Amino acid sequence: FVGRLTAVKKLEMILHAMSKSKAKGNLYNLTLIGGGEKKEELEKLTKELDLTENVWFYGPCYNEVELGSLIYNADLCVSPGNVGLTAMHSLVFGTPVITHNHFPLQMPEFEAIREGETGTFYEYENIDSLTQKIEEWLYTPRNREEIRRMCMLEIDEYWTPYYQIKILKHNLR
Question: What CA–CA distance (Å, rounded) separates 22 from 92?
Fold first, then answer.
């Protein structure tokens, strides 16, 4: 995850999903990049769920080269709350995104997530659904380079200023 560690991001859901996966023998790591009011609470929950070996609180990072490397090398970006620019940031570096499916609450950027191509959606506020979607994404064989290409292509084709100008010009006719 990349962004502010705030209540609206519902990051505790990732920790609970990790705990459910761990109970089934499915282990993965989580890097939380960012700072915010929920950091201490999330650190406490990480300890309570015995996930300290698998969770890294990276802290705030404003260096784009460093952020790019972290995102590019991640298998997935999970944003249980509303996803906004986090989706754009992840996709531009070729990393797919998981977020919730209650679209009226989402930011417009959720539209860049294409099911099975640039990410997936879990059932809103359902930890079991989030757990399942994370596991499906991590443990289903996929061509990582093809996924990376589709993520980057989504941004290049539909989310650049050039594309937006094209839409505006088309609609002005």
Answer: 30
Shortest CA distance to 98 belongs to which of 46, 138, 54?
Answer: 138
Contact 123, 134 (CB under 8 A): no
First-residue to last-residue Cα distance in the chain: 41
**What type of residue is 6?**
T
- Say yes or no to pLDDT of 164 above 90: no
Residue 143 CB contacts under 8 Å (≥ 6 apart), including other chains: none
Whether this prediction's pTM lies above 0.90 is answered by yes
Q: Is 171 left (phi over 0), alpha (psi -120 to 50) or beta?
A: alpha
Q: Tell which residue, 26, 2, 52, has the closest CA to residue 140.
A: 26
pLDDT tens sequence across 135-157: 999 999 999 999 999 999 999 99
Give the separation between CA 24 and CA 59, rounded to whole angstroms.
29
Better-scored residue on pLDDT, 168 or 101: 101
Contact 84, 77 (CB under 8 A): no
Radius of gyration of the chain (CA): 16
Tally of CB atoms within 10 A around 156: 13
Instruction: Provide the H-helix boundaries in the chain.
Output: 12-23, 39-48, 64-72, 85-92, 127-139, 144-158, 161-171
